[in-house]
Design a protein that fits this description.
Blueprint lengths: L11 E2 L7 E5 L1 E7 L3 E5 L4 E5 L5 E5 L1 E4 L1 H9 L3 E5 L5 E5 L8 H8 L3 H27 L8 H12 L5 H20 L19 H23 L15 H7 L3 H16 L5 E3 L4 E3 L1 H13 L2 H18 L8
Parallel strand pairs: 2-6, 3-7, 6-8
Antiparallel strand pairs: 1-2, 3-4, 4-5, 8-9, 10-11
Helix pairs in contact: 3-4, 3-5, 3-8, 4-5, 6-7, 6-8, 6-9, 6-10
GO biological process, one term: maintenance of CRISPR repeat elements
Cofactor: Mg(2+); Mn(2+)
EC number: 3.1.-.-
């Protein structure tokens, strides 16, 4: 299960400096309003946001909000979306005259899908090459077998000339599989991590990666909905959450992977996980440590920026600046 808070009911409120949405995560916040401001009261602080600057309030987890506040927000044209604590959308309250999101969906469907898919796949390869380079610098030794680095660079160049989405996805998967196999050489072999596997995971590294990516997915889903985008209209990826998978793919190697590699290569002990016949279960202590590291690294800020860059590109027709 993806968790957005620790046991002390930590509450995170997004800044309005860059993004037209406010996200309240965790448990125990009191959400109020005046005629001109949204007010978020937490244990030790109170923050105010001008209503004229807000397009979307995102309520993640358990908080209190008065019906008068809901009415005030909706009258000011603000959407309100409620999420479970794992970032799963529950429902949205829209201003009476607002559309149901079809306009954004149509904008997304009208994008040159092949061009965007190539850009996302290229950014993913670049991010993984940088990640491997950082590991090699810290180890002062190479992780590549003969020909692997050339093959990854060749894949990066080849993407530019592919036409069919199936070809782009095939090359993206090939490079991703190679990346995880190369990463495995930097970790203790007794952990049993050889490559990326689907659920249920049988080793602690795969289990940690899955948990970290699930946190990344949940955070991105909240931001995507906050930007009034359709999370299911993807470019490189298809199906439910397609756009979310697109936007987090280039971020994985620079956000979640360093946390997992640092823990797996150093402080991980037998008490941090339990191996059964068919799966690996992470301990509550390890999960809490991962959550703490996730938020200490301000990963949510990078997710918000990625979503905001895509949203602006969609609205203005400018180039999508992909973070990785």
């Amino acid at each position: 299960m993806v968790v957005f808070t620790q046991s002390d009911a930590y509450v995170l409120v997004r800044s309005m400096v860059d993004y037209p949405w406010v996200s309240v995560s965790g448990f125990g916040a009191h959400i109020k309003s005046t005629r001109k401001h949204l007010i978020i009261q937490k244990k030790t602080s109170t923050e105010q946001y001008p209503l004229e600057d807000i397009s979307h309030l995102l309520v993640v987890g358990g908080h209190t909000i008065h019906s008068a506040t809901i009415s005030q927000l909706v009258r000011n044209g603000v959407y309100i979306t409620f999420f479970d604590s794992d970032g799963t959308p529950v429902g949205t309250i829209r201003p009476f005259s607002a559309d149901n999101g079809e306009e954004s969906s149509e904008h997304q469907r009208s994008l040159p899908r092949q061009r965007y898919a190539i850009r996302i796949a290229q950014a993913s390869i670049k991010s993984r090459l940088f990640a491997i380079e950082r590991i090699q610098e810290s180890r002062q030794s190479s992780l590549f077998y003969e020909g692997e680095l050339d093959l990854l660079h060749k894949s990066l160049d080849e993407l530019e000339y592919l036409i069919k989405l199936d070809e782009i996805r095939r090359l993206h998967k090939l490079s991703s599989d190679m990346y995880y196999e190369i990463l495995s050489r930097s970790l203790p072999p007794e952990l049993g991590f050889r490559r990326r596997t689907l659920r249920p995971q049988a080793d602690p590294v795969n289990a940690m990666l899955s948990f970290g990516y699930a946190m990344l997915f949940g955070n991105c889903t909240v931001a995507v909905i906050g930007a009034l985008l359709n999370p299911d209209v993807g470019l490189l990826h298809e199906g439910k959450g397609g756009l979310v998978y697109d936007l987090i793919e280039p971020l994985k190697a620079g956000t979640v992977d360093p946390i997992v590699l640092n823990m797996a290569g150093g402080s991980l002990t037998d008490s941090d996980f339990e191996l059964t016949n068919d799966r690996c279960m992470l301990s509550d202590t390890l999960i809490s440590a991962m959550i703490k590291s996730f938020y200490a690294a301000n990963i949510s800020d990078r997710v918000n920026e990625q979503v905001y860059n895509f949203s602006r590109a969609l609205v203005t027709g400018t180039d999508f600046k992909i973070l990785y």
